[in-house]
Amino acid sequence: MKQIFGILITLIVLYIFTTVIGESFLSPFNQEQILKRTALYGLLAIGVSFVIITGGIDLSIGSVVCLVGCGIPWLVMKHGWSPAAAVTAAFLVAIMIGLLHGFLITKVKLQPFVVTLCGLLIYRGATRGFAEDQTQGFGSGYLEFRKLATGKLQITDQFGIPMPFLLLVVVGVFAWLLLNKTIWGRYLFALGNNEEAARLSGINTDRMVTLSYVICSVLAALGGLLFVLDGNSAQPGAFGNFYELYAIAAAVLGGCSLRGGSGTVLGVIIGAAVMQVLKNMINLIDWLKSHMEFLVVGVVLLVAVVADELVKRRVRRVK
Question: CATH fold of 2-6+36-135+161-318, please?
Fold first, then answer.
């Protein structure tokens, strides 16, 4: 609880502040949208948190979102694949991407920053190539398929819990169990704290690093699927741009140290919620222009990283 106390207080303060200044903030529709966007970005953030816990980074998340978000409707609408076959193929590609990242980092000994930066460029370039830079989406005959992202569990006549948020809860529970109740979770944290010590203790560090990148890519693929089902439109040149920024920011705000070795799933989800409430606040405040969104996100992320470094230094001094 101590790990998420700070970000939880931040969320509560932001929520109260935005409620006071924004007349439409508490409207049922707006609350549903915040839950949905928190879920979509929260899935990406949970994925990258596995990588960050091991001491790595993944900058290719947005491009994987683009690859899957454009690739699935491209296969279904242009080549006549069934949605099930297209989704299966997309997740297999995501697994291969994670395995490739893990191989290049653990066996070829390349830096995660370099590997995933190259992936960022390659996957988006490939998507723009096969899609011929044309917007992709589903036709009217796929409304049932799109309910995976657009449906909701109705609570009252005016408010319902979006389906992506329910998926986030399921993924979050499995991620929490993996990190906190299995030996693989302990291995991931040990790897992030001291890779050499983890290796000397008998942990197959290469396998664990690869596992973290596979999880990250698979959740990015799930996010890409939900994003395109929600909006029914994916432009290869723009779809997924800067999504890795939101994912990494949410993970860091939620307690994942960029040095590795720490992080909580609940904290990451709360971090994603903070990012979406911030974004909503920017849209509601007249004197904060919407194009200042990246400025606000950047400042918040910088403050979080500085605070994380100061806390780490204090802990080292105490020890």
Answer: ABC transporter involved in vitamin B12 uptake, BtuC (1.10.3470)
